[in-house]
## 1
Amino acid sequence: MTIHIKNKAYGFLILEAIIALALFSISVFSTLILSFSSRRMLNEARATSALIDAAIPVAGNPLSFDQQSAHTAYGNDAVIAAFSSSTPKTSSNISGSSTVSFNILEPDTFSAYGKDTCPPILDFSNQTSTPSIGALPISSTDLITDMSVKDGVAYISAKSSIAADPDLFIFDMNDIAIPKPISSLNTGPGLAALAVAGPYIFAANESSVNQLQIIDIHDRSHPFMVSQAKVPLDIASSTRPNASAIFYDKGFIYLGTEKGDSPELTVWNVSDPAHPILAGRYEIGNKVERIFVDGSEAYIAGSGANQLMAIDVSDPTHPTLITTAAPSGWQTQSGQALDVFEGSLALGRDTGGFNNKANPELILYDASHITQQGSFDERGGVYGIIARPPNFLLFTRRTSGQFRLDNGFGTTSAAYDIPGIPAAMSCDGGNIYVASNADPSVTLIKDFHE
């Protein structure tokens, strides 16, 4: 009987130990959950505090909220926080904070990447200052092909006859007199164009191996290749054409190539930059010189009869042709520049070797129907456009190169000589940058402000 009692006692002890262990496990788990929740609450409190700190100056001076309504990072337009006034700003309510409310936005920031930082309204009333010029500390063998300047940082693509030369450069342009090199990268044969979208550069490579390259610039001082992709071939024995143009829009890359046996326009889903996925293709029939996507339409400028094409990309997996335009002179001229603004589409063309006044170099279309609205002759060709009708900022390749402001068609209200051979133009806020070859340099024109 005694042995039986002892065994029973031991059984109770084991049961109690199991219960104690379970209670201990629950306690540890609860502590971890509470710790995690507390940390999350602390982080949220800090984030809210930071937003309130940013909002205080706006509440104190509602007139300034246009300048303080968004924060951009890595040269993109991803909105971190935005503030809006509950009533219009007028002379009777510009003081006090009672009329201001705050809308904290958390949009799809990746979709917002790549937006143009050029303001929708430019003030053309002051065109008297002398442009500033900064020599770029790169080899004259590196021919600049494209440039994007965002938040005072310039991303420049190039190609070189020397294989060891870098073809991607990043510069701090806050002191235009002395552009400060941040980093450079050699991606291969050379880059034809680039698009900067948040912490990534999407590059069109002049390679028969990989035409799309994606570069990580989370740390601008140490850019590195994230992924590469080949355009597909319809004929396996064909040589892949070099990439020639690129545009980013809402998580998709639109890549153009030289004329080949396969479609010259490919659309890539880059929502995961490490793994770009081919989404769609379209046969252009000629080299793609420039791409501009606006809403559900992609506009293609190139050579050949269909010098301007409008393509429906509302479904990027199935691009479909809307219409084409074949302006006079297409036999010798090719499209070189595009810009779309509030329903107006501006097409810039080269001269085709010699200037024929009957074949204009700048043509303005109604973007919705691709119907011509106006045109004018520019004997230096038009290789870059910022369209703010009735004003057009152009860079041409007249002797020494020029940057021109045309008020309406054919009336030039300002012209600036650009050293070397102008190769690319970018608008950052109210500042206009023009990159040149020969003696590599960047010219800054600061006459235009929002």
Note: Confidence is low (pLDDT under 50) at residues 61-112.
## 2
Amino acid sequence: MPTLRSASSSTAARRCQSCGHPLDPSSTVCLECGHLHPLAPTAPSPVSDRRILPAFLLCALIGVFGAHRFYAGRIGTGILQILTVGGFGIWWLADLILLVTGHFKDGEGARITEWT
């Protein structure tokens, strides 16, 4: 069994919840027992200046052709939706749900959250 070194003040605050072994600040797994530890939550994703309503209408009416993705600035996946007819309808339905729940992202990775 490895010997424990005295931990510095930065690592002393972060210990394994399972065995109490000191954790590296960037580690997500305890090297002693293998317990998983998620890192601290990251900052919330930025909010887009685009609106849900136009994207939702485009998705509902001609979404199988990726029109809402072109509006959101996601040109590459818009072209893929044209070629696959909205991922055979499954991709289109998933996008519709993401739009309604406010989890759809624009081409820059910002969430589209405002309806009007």
Note: Residues 43-116 form one domain.
## 3
Amino acid sequence: MLEHRTLPGSHSGFRTTISYHGLPRPAGGTGYSRQSGPITLRAVSIEPSRLLSALSAARAVSGSELARQLGVTRAAVWKQIESLRQLGAPIEASLGRGYRLLWPLEMLDAATIRAQLEPTLRKRLGAIDVHWQVDSTSSVLLRQAAQGAPDLSICVAEAQSAGRGRRGRDWISPLGGNVYFSLLRRFGAGMGALSGMSLVAGIAATQALADCGVGNAGLKWPNDVLADGRKLAGILVELGGEYLGPCHAVIGIGINVRLPRQFRAGQPSIDLAAVCGGVPPSRNAVIARLLVRLVAALDRFEHAGFAPFRAEFARHDLLAGRAVRVHAGKQEHDGVAEGVDDRGALRVRHDGVATVYDSAEVSVRRA
């Protein structure tokens, strides 16, 4: 499962950050997946997006044909193909036939995302930065926030080399098949007023997915979106600034759109392709709906806190009434989940006594 730049100036109104001879150099000079270990990116002369655009899901394209189209050698094509495949690109190689995409690839595009937003929201947004590969979209925004990036700046990427989830876990981030999205939101009040924000982001994410035809997603406290009992998306909120204000939050959301089997590790996972019968919604459309729902939810949250969202969370709550095991620090406690309170803290009844948890790991107990 996968948890969680285009800048003004190009012909489309944005410029994409591509470096290191076609593949950007991530922190430490490597990409990473838990299955294959560190990936050393080869220096080649082909822009990755150009090579992917030359490939097709309908037919195989030979290495010779690709070399002619791109004006490079067949060896250069092979090297770049292998680098992209190690990053998770869905490229199938067939001896004597060439290379074919396992499914059509839709590249992320800031102009396409903006075009799906209402004018009022478009005016409010900061830059929509579309990267080829970054260490983490949230890490990018945290660095930019410290340098004064404006409110509602957005970062998305085709791949991450150091994606991360809650409690420092790795978030596996293969190329081009998922949504890696982060949003910077600034607040006048301090961090102490932001309790429950990850739940608000989860509600917004389920609403955005429903807008895209995915109506069966639910929420597992505090930051997972599940479908059919398996993880579909994850949310990570990271804060900076002052406890009493002002402060900022970077909300990272990772959504599995097409998750290659070799990247499915850890807890059971699912992707939008499986949920939607093999045809997932557009990644650009999903990001646009995330922006619409998330910005509206955060505006409401800033003025009223989590309490008004409690009933909405209850409608999506996958733990309420379930026998659960709570891992708090080095202790484990069995009980029955009873929803959340007005701050978004989890309520669990242990032997008749209700306990509230602001931070813990929770798993459903098997019968």
Note: The radius of gyration is 21 Å.
